[in-house]
Structures
1.
Amino acid sequence: MSHFTTMTTQITDPEALRSALGDVGYGDVEVHDHAQPLYGYLGDQRSDRANVIVRRRHIGRASNDIGFRREEDGHYLAVISEYDRRVHDDAWLGRVSARHAYNATSATLAEQGFHIADETVEEDGTVRLVLRRIGAGQ
């Protein structure tokens, strides 16, 4: 039985995190105001808790839940078992973090009256956006 480890992230927006997890292949994501228990690969409830959770049945038969726990400062800690860190490693967490930033930025732009008119992803992964103000020359 592997234990859960935590990794610090810059993630702050639970809905942008839900979208980011969807972007990397996990469409069924739970978001809770109060942290909920995580479960191990045998279905055993662990002492670890999280606010944003991908349940093990959506990851793989021998996997544990993957969670993100909201800290007092508003950032989320990734809570991932040692076993699942073989796939859900720093590179995976980097992709989730990048998609979180993209989704949070897109939502903020929409709130400010902009929409993304064009998007280009550079070879190094940099995303370049062309914005238009909604209602202006559409």
2.
Amino acid sequence: MKLWTHAVISGAGSGIGLGIATRLLRRGSKVSVLDLQLSEGSAAALDCAAEKGTGEWQFLRIDITDAAQVHGAVAEAVRQFGPPELALNSAGIIINKAFTNLTATEFQQVVNVNLNGSFNFASAALPHMRAGARLALIASMAGLTSNYGYAAYGTSKFGVVGLATTLRFECEPLGIGVSCICPGEVRTPMVAGENATGNPISLELKKLAGSLDVDSACDTILAGLDAGRWQIIPGMRSKLTALVSRHCPNVFYRLCCRLLQQVMQRQKPLNAE
């Protein structure tokens, strides 16, 4: 178990980011929580974790799409707690719609938050990081193999995987590790919103890679970061999905198409009404 002296985490007001932040606080780390907002419940969870582990935390409000805000917040985090040993970007959004129903504004919004936001975070954090530190970007299983209804989300997450891959080449020779985290479905508030409004065909296909609770996903992610792993995929079903899609792409595509046809057949009576 590694003690990350100072961790800067974006999107840490909820979901995976919050889960990682509380775990680090229980270890005694200093954690800079970056997000648009922080609820009373999340603040209480951070306080409780800090008390158990003698960690410290601070909240810095940012819009991940605003480069100047992100750079300013990271600089302030460093001023308060010192250079980050871990910088983790978990800020993200999802819009799950078939391409024909997706507007240009929606597409640009998702790419701006997920991909441009990852760039903003990395460009703000890296100048403050020293040899032995680690930069981690949360992509998605959708960044390895996309899904029906993921024109915006899949595109943005493929971009995050590409960005992390490039940064790995450029940063690791300098002694700064890079991790790309590619979870399948994790039952976060963002996913709850997707399940309430997302395309029903997409939601059925997502079941192929399985679903994890936040605690299980965070435990796996943090263990991977501690071990210095490049690609971290929580969950055995997600790992298997990634393996088959990478090494047997045609088999994987045919399997998905078969499932797609079955789901669309079940949807026909509903559409007819």
